[in-house]
Design brief:
- The chain is α+β, with helices and mostly antiparallel strands.
- It is built from 18 helices and eleven strands.
- Strands 1-2-7-4-3 form a five-stranded mixed beta sheet. Strands 5-6 form a two-stranded antiparallel ribbon.
- A hairpin with a 5-residue loop joins strand 9 and strand 10.
- The radius of gyration is 22 Å and the shape is globular.
- The termini are far apart.
Amino acid sequence: MQPKANQRLGRIPGPKGLPFLGNLPQLLPDPLPYVKHLHDRYGNVFFARFAGNRKVVFLLGPEATEMALQDRAGLFSNAGGYADQSRYLGEHVLLFRDGAEHRGLRQVLNPSFRTERLKSYLPAINRRIARAVRNWRQTPPVDLALGIRELTLAVAIDVVVGAKPEREIPALNRKFLRVLAAMVSLNPLTRFRGRRTRAWLDRQLREQIPSRREATTFDLFTMLCQSAGAGGVQSDDEIVDNVIGLLVAAYETTASTISMMVWALAENPSWQDRLRNEISRWNAPSGPSWADLDHLPETDWVLKEVLRLYPPISFIPRRTTGVVRIEGHTIPAGTPVIVSPGFVHQMESIYPQPTMFDPRRFAPGRAEDRAHRCAWVPFGKGAHTCLGMQLARMETKAFFAHLLKAVRIDATGTPPRMKYVPVLGPAGPLPVRFDPI
């Protein structure tokens, strides 16, 4: 039984909340301004009230972030932090495991994300991106953010489960959106639809497991089926949960990053020109190679600045497994806690003028992200660092290598309306226009 830690937070400060809703009206739809307000009032350690007036402790700043994510003392549970979300993605997903179980499964998955395997994915990724950009150049999409999501989902399906008929991608995208919405919704109907859709995805994958055990393809689904019984994979339930978890992780956060980088370049045409000049060094019709993508320093700076300003996961949950003492406060075992990359990325003590788009922050002469080991953590830190970090980086850079050779991106309106949970990103169409070059 979980300790009733919310009743024993002692002198940890925090605001009053409404019955049932707690502080959700202030936290939603954009949590960061209210979190900054509470930080100004209470300091780095405080609680806020979530649904049911449940107290959740915020641990802010790079030191607290390092303590929770590096977790050298073993006092923070990833699985405990994501207990609600695991009902929809599946309790066996890598993200929801701790300790030896997490290490075992990660060892099984690691080979699929090493450099040589990533290089093998790149030709197919180039083909998909080139086809999408060619179509968009001729007929710009009404909703570019949706087009980007469907593109990154298609890439994720290629990598995780193997090729899927093109006509099925939009429907699959809608299904994943239902599951993601259910993970953060208080609406019983939204949750019901999410569970029903999750059950449909489960059936579609489970019926393929016997044939995948005999297949010769190199996608992650097949690899998991053929490694059953080794390391952290023991059952069909674990295979299905992790395929769904990998699909969500491989496409939703990458779609967010690409969409926000499109907007950043539309708002900053001088940087768009600099990146276009940088990527002009390659001319292979098949697209950039791994070596090409590895030698785009200014593209890297822009990508890092976009991830600083718009980290896809701005708030990371954990649950304490033992007593945590920090900055004069004692947090009991069993307490839900949150650390915030989004908050750290906006700290003026680390990033002067933090709301300004300035990719030079990451140039060798400045390297503001090296002020602390957890000054820049869009992919997390420690044992749970995002497994697909390099895949996302490769896919994003390949996307812009194709796009900027084909079109100029112009802003046509004010910044897009945003959503912040479960993944930060545009909540509607991106206000941009493509002008063919």
